[in-house]
Design a protein that fits this description.
The chain is an all-alpha fold and about 70 residues long. The protein contains 3 helices and no strands. The protein has one domain (about 10-55). Helix 1 (about 10-30) packs antiparallel against helix 2. The two termini are about 20 Å apart.
Length: about 70
């Protein structure tokens, strides 16, 4: 099954930044439950697909109309 990308460039930058901030907070506050949303944010950024976006019909990825 091929997952169609629905996470755009700006969205990826935000997700990566949020993931890094959550990891730093988890380390500083010694609250390891913050790792779960951090990993989710980083994973969706690198894969380019967000399941919740698909459920709600959101797509922040620009469509290439040249093809």
């Amino acid at each position: 099954m091929h997952l169609k990308k629905n996470v755009g460039k700006t969205d990826k930058i935000i997700r990566i930044s949020l993931g890094i901030v959550l990891i730093v907070l988890a380390i500083v506050l010694k609250t390891w439950w913050l790792i779960i949303p951090a990993v989710a944010a980083l994973a969706t950024a690198f894969v380019g697909f967000c399941g919740l976006y698909r459920v709600f019909g959101i797509n922040t990825c620009k469509i290439d109309r040249k093809a």
